[in-house]
Every structure is written in structure tokens, then in C-alpha cells.
Amino acid sequence: MHSVTLYHWEPNANSGKPMLALMEKGVAFDSHYLDLLGFDQHKPDYLAINPQGTIPAMVHGERVLTESTAIMEYVEETFPGPRLMPDDPSDRWRIRWWMKFMDQWLGPSFSMIGWSVFVGPAVRGRDPAELKAAVERIPLPERRVAWRKAITGEFSPEEMAESQRRVALGIRMLEQELGRRPWLASDAYSLADINGFNLAYALPLAQPALSNDELTPNILRWLRAIYARPATKACWALGRTNLVKRVTILEQPHIAAGQIA
Ligand SMILES: N[C@@H](CCC(=O)N[C@@H](CS)C(=O)NCC(=O)O)C(=O)O
Fold it and tell me: Would you say the CB of residue 72 lies under 6 angstroms from ligand 1?
């Protein structure tokens, strides 16, 4: 039994951020896997920890922490191990700039596409009455709306087009920024890279027309460098679904434009 327990789903998006930060720092933790597709996050045991019913949450001693990026910063500041935030104020600003951009603007668009192509189809075939009851138990109204749309496939063409526009713009911005330095926001590996990898690890598979070795060589170099890190390998090994197995696309030495993986 460790002093840290992390409640998480797959090493993906918000769950993967504190998972990977803990592993990079070498912090031992009890892993409590919640099956998001089985609605574990809305069950009373977990709501007692995070009443919002969203994942992840971390318990450190008596303290309960939520919000994945804020948890990563807590992990960085609380535990010894390799630094994931540099000292230089302008680097720290750039790291936080990118994390805010990804959390508030780009991430929700990736998420909408992911929910429409993965989460929705994964649960849609279940008993409708059971699904209706599960959705009614969701505490946050906005999450209830997201689940309803994923289940019924009712993301509107306008909102999907806006998400795709943001993803395309976000890819261009990432490619440009990664042409300036080895890592996303500073010369050393940082929380911004952990955040970005969780969003973009399957980019060449999810957006093959926009991201590949020919169009976005800097993004591909960056993703492969993060995937090669022992902490990333250990973290992704905890994945149980096909969603996170998509990371193995990064084992291909060259992903050509138009390649069907
Ligand atoms: N801002 C929160 C968002 C947490 C969140 O919405 N997590 C998603 C998974 S990536 C979730 O719990 N979805 C389950 C649900 O809505 O039922 C964070 O960064 O931790």
C-alpha cells in the first residue's frame, strides 16, 4: 500500500497525464483502474472520492486531488525525481500556455472526435434502458450531454466541423513550435510534453491526412522520442483497450502521407 492512489482509466487524455507524470518522477502509486465504458466513474464508491464523477483523481495521504493538469503540477512540486518544470520563468510560462491551450481549446475537440468514433460505438449496442439509467446517474450536466450525443451519434455536423478545424490548426501550431526546439515548450522534457503526448500519441493514425512523416516531421520525431522513454512504455503497458494500443503506430520508422495503417 502506497501513500498515493491514482484513480484512472486508460493511459490516454486526462487519465494518462498524472499516470505518466508519476512514472516519470518514479513515484510508486496504487493504481485503481476505473472502466469508463462500464460507467465506474459514476458509481457511489468513486463519487465519494470525486463527486463530479470524472477521471482522474489522486489521493495522497488524506488529500484528494482532481483536475489532471493541476495534479501533474502537484506531483512535480511534491515528489523528488527528474524535474518536469524548469526554473526559467519564460519556459514555465510557455509550458503553462501550451497546457492551457491543449486543455481548454484543442483537447475538447480531440475528445469530441474520440467520443464519436470510439466511446459511442463501444457502448451503443448495449441495452437501451440500461444505458438511459446509466446516463441519468451522471452528476455533471455537460457530461450527461456528451454521453447522450456519443450514444446516439448526435454530434452535429457543425460541431464536428469546428472540432476538425481546431484539430487541423492545432496540428499546424504543434508542428511549427516543435521546429523551434526539441521538446514542445522548453529545451528539457516537461509537463507540456506529457500533456501533449496524451492528446496526440495516435495522431498519425487518427488524422493520417494531416499528420505523417512527410507533412509533420517535427511532430513525428517528438512523439517517437516520448514513446521511447521507459516511463511512457511502462505507462502504456497498463492500457487494456484498443484505444491505447494505437500507440504502436509510432514503432513504424516512417509513416508516409496517404499510408493506410
Ligand atoms: N478537467 C478534467 C476533466 C476530466 C474528464 O472529463 N475526464 C474524462 C475522461 S478523459 C471523464 O471522466 N469522462 C467520463 C465521463 O464523462 O463520464 C481533468 O482534466 O481532469
Answer: no
Q: Which of 54, 73, 115, 243 to mutate to test the pocket of ligand 1 (most atoms within 8 A of CB)?
A: 54
The rounded distance, in Å, linking the Cα atoms of 135 and 64 is 25
Per-residue pLDDT of the chain (261 residues; tens, 9 = 90+): 889 999 999 999 999 999 999 999 999 999 999 999 999 999 999 999 999 999 999 999 999 999 999 999 999 999 999 999 999 999 999 999 999 999 999 999 999 999 999 999 999 999 999 999 999 999 999 999 999 999 999 999 999 999 999 999 999 999 999 999 999 999 999 999 999 999 999 999 999 999 999 999 999 999 999 999 999 999 999 999 999 999 999 999 999 997 755
For the record, the C-alpha cell of 111 comes out as 475528445
C-alpha cell at position 248: 504502436
CB 195 near ligand 1, within 6 Å = no
Answer whether 41 contacts ligand 1 (Cβ < 6 A). Answer: yes
* Residue 55 Ramachandran class (φ > 0 left, ψ -120 to 50 alpha, else beta): beta
β-pairing, 4-8 with 30-33?
A: parallel
Q: Is residue 198 in contact with ligand 1, taking CB distance under 6 Å?
A: no
